[in-house]
């Protein structure tokens, strides 16, 4: 009996120690719960509306829990049912925990804490089960030790009270778990609603984007139609003007014809009188006529002989002129100099007088050695003379200009690198010289050169030559390279575009620009379409000196690859045609804002070009090609590996005499530069297909 009592006391002590541990754990759980409650205060505030709706359900669940607890105290069987119900709730809680991954970080922490509380609750339930087992053991001891039961009754009652307190704690934890589960469901519903709203917004955004794209397409179509109508209107105006002039001319001619008719009627009457007299004389003249016919036949044969000699002499002159041009080109190539052509544009209706208050005027010497190769400029009584390879006055047509450079363009098909660029102040006619205008007679160097290239390449097919050509177009705007043929490029360039292009020169003298669009061309129509696209994309602006001033340097490059199946020869030529932006004085152009920045950038790059020419002219070891994107791009053209020609365009306005003198002096300096003899690029196998600016 004493052994049982000792075991019972030991069990009671163990139970009391275990109770103390549970109390300490309970206090720890309470403090943790308080901390979690304070940490989730903000979340509970956001979910307060949902909690208010669930208060009635929570109250009902609380009442049910209290009923179950009372039933648990009365009957052990009902306790078992409550445990099974708890296990079911536990399964539901685990299912809720598997779904919590879609909640926010705060809800994940709350669910994690709820799981931890549930595990602690399970530990309490396990302890309760163990207590029940001990209670059963104690009852067995009680049946065997009735005498000791009276003494330990008070202790058992105390334990039962503590058990009831622990059950209340368990109920409170269950209530907390239920509240967390309700919040979890509410948060899940809110998230689903947010996902639905997000999907609706996404669909609406896609709809708006489609509508915006349609509006842009309609706008572009309307702009294209407007441009077409403007062109047609200008054509109609021009035709109307010509028709009006022709009508006035015809009216004048009709009046003149009427007067002439009256006069002729009077003359007819007089002639009829004279006819009778003349008839008599005619008989006498017949004899003389026979003699005259004999002399006429002799004179006719003599005239034919002289005409044949004249035609032969003219053909010799043409052949001699062609030979002179070839010999001149050969001499220039052997000298290695940059060829310079000067062109003076005609006065426009809005220009001032060519003879200004300062007495400035332009003239062209007519001596044999200077005709077509020199220009004189009078400024403040001082005569300045300049001579170049060719000088075109204001009467020179686009055809006259192209005839002089056609052989140079032909060199690109022969495997040479050719570079032609236009230099001059704003409004001096550079873009007109290079690009021209609509109309057969108004075409500039670029379209005429391409027509000659394609026409000649087709004629050489009979000799076994086959050519492939690639074109690219870029502009240098504010020291940044822009691809004028980039896919999807709008008519007006987006100033926020920040794509970077890199210029690279290889050891063979070839130049490439990274990421630049290169397009295969097969006909003049292909190139014409590309030129139109580039012209719409090029940066232009209005200044006080020019309504349509080019604000960037335009570079057109045609890479030509040719192969001859009969000889096995391959040639690689490059044609660079460049329209430089015009130099301008800030005080005269009135540039401000973006135009001021553009002007400063243009003048800086042209100044860098002048520094390069000056260094080449002096024969310096170091030539500062890297001072600007323009000079670095033109390095192969100015470095002796290319046939290079510069057009210096000048304005006849007296107010522009300062810029004209600067342009002419710069052209003379360029003409004096010896850059070396260009090399023809031929080889026994096809050349690398990368586009070269060299």
UniProtKB/TrEMBL annotation:
Coiled-coil intervals, chain numbering: 26-144, 184-218, 254-316
The keyword Cell cycle appears for this protein: no
Residue positions binding ATP: 424-431
GO MF annotations in UniProt: ATP binding; microtubule binding; microtubule motor activity
Kinesin motor domain span: 337-673
A Gene Ontology BP annotation from the UniProt entry: microtubule-based movement
GO cellular component, one term: microtubule
Keywords assigned by UniProt, alphabetized: ATP-binding, Coiled coil, Microtubule, Motor protein, Nucleotide-binding
Family under the similarity heading: Belongs to the TRAFAC class myosin-kinesin ATPase superfamily. Kinesin family. KIN-14 subfamily.
Record-given protein name: Kinesin-like protein
Organism in which the protein naturally occurs: Panicum virgatum (Blackwell switchgrass)
Source organism phylogeny: Eukaryota, Viridiplantae, Streptophyta, Embryophyta, Tracheophyta
């Amino acid at each position: 009996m004493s052994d049982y009592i000792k075991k019972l006391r030991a069990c009671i002590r163990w139970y009391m120690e275990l109770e103390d541990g549970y109390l300490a754990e309970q206090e720890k759980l309470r403090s943790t719960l308080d901390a979690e409650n304070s940490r989730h205060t903000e979340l509970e505030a956001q979910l307060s509306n949902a909690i208010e709706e669930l208060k009635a359900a929570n109250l009902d669940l609380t009442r049910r829990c209290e009923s179950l607890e009372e039933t648990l105290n009365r009957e052990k069987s009902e306790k078992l049912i409550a445990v099974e119900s708890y296990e079911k709730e536990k399964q539901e809680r685990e299912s809720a925990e598997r779904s919590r991954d879609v909640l926010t970080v705060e809800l994940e922490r709350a669910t994690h804490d709820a799981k931890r509380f549930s595990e602690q609750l399970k530990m309490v339930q396990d302890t309760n089960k163990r207590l029940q087992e001990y209670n059963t053991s104690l009852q067995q001891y009680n049946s065997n030790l009735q005498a000791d039961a009276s003494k330990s009754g008070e202790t058992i009652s105390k334990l039962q009270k503590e058990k009831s307190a622990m059950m209340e704690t368990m109920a409170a934890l269950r209530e907390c778990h239920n509240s967390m589960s309700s919040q979890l469901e509410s948060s899940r519903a809110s998230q689903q609603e947010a996902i639905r709203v997000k999907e609706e917004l996404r669909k609406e955004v896609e709809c708006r984007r489609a509508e915006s794209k349609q509006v842009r397409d309609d706008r572009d179509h309307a702009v294209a139609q407007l441009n077409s109508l403007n062109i047609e209107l200008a054509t109609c105006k021009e035709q109307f003007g010509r028709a009006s002039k022709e009508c006035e001319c015809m009216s004048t001619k009709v009046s003149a014809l009427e007067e002439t008719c009256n006069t002729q009627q009077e003359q007819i009457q007089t002639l009829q009188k004279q006819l009778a007299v003349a008839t008599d004389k005619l008989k006498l003249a017949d004899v003389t006529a026979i003699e005259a016919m004999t002399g006429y036949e002799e004179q006719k044969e003599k005239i034919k002989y002289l005409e044949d000699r004249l035609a032969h002499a003219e053909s010799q002159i043409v052949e001699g002129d062609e030979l002179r041009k070839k010999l001149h080109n050969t001499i220039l190539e052997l000298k290695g100099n940059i060829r310079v052509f000067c062109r003076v544009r005609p006065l426009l209706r809005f220009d001032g007088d060519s003879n200004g208050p300062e007495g400035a005027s332009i003239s062209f010497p007519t001596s044999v050695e200077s005709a077509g190769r020199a220009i004189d400029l009078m400024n403040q009584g001082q005569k300045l003379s300049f001579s170049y390879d060719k000088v075109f006055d204001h009467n020179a047509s686009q055809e006259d200009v192209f005839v002089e450079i056609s052989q140079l363009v032909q060199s690109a098909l022969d495997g040479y690198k050719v570079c032609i660029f236009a230099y001059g102040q704003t409004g001096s006619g550079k873009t007109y010289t290079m690009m021209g205008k609509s109309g057969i007679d108004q075409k500039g160097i670029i379209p005429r050169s391409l027509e000659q290239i394609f026409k000649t390449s087709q004629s050489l097919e009979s000799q076994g030559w086959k050519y492939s050509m690639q074109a690219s177009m870029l502009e240098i705007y504010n020291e940044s390279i822009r691809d004028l043929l980039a896919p999807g490029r709008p008519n007006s360039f987006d100033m926020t575009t920040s794509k970077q292009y890199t210029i690279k020169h290889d050891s063979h003298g070839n130049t490439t620009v990274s990421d630049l669009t290169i397009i295969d061309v097969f006909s003049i129509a292909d190139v014409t379409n590309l030129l139109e696209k580039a012209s719409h994309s090029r940066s232009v602006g209005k200044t006080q000196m020019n309504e349509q001033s080019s604000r960037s340097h335009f570079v057109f490059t045609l890479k030509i690859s040719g192969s001859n199946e009969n000889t096995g020869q391959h040639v690689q030529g490059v044609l660079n045609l460049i329209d430089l932006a015009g130099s301008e004085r800030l005080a005269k152009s009135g540039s401000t804002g973006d135009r001021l920045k553009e002007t400063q950038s243009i003048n800086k790059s042209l100044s860098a070009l002048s520094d390069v020419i000056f260094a080449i002219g002096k024969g310096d070891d170091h030539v500062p090609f890297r001072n600007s994107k323009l000079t670095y791009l033109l390095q192969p053209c100015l470095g002796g590996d290319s046939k290079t020609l510069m057009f210096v365009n000048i304005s006849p306005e007296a107010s522009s005499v300062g810029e004209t003198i600067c342009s002419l002096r710069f052209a003379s300096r360029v003409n004096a530069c010896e850059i070396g003899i260009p090399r023809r690029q031929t080889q026994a196998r096809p050349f690398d297909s990368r586009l070269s600016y060299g």
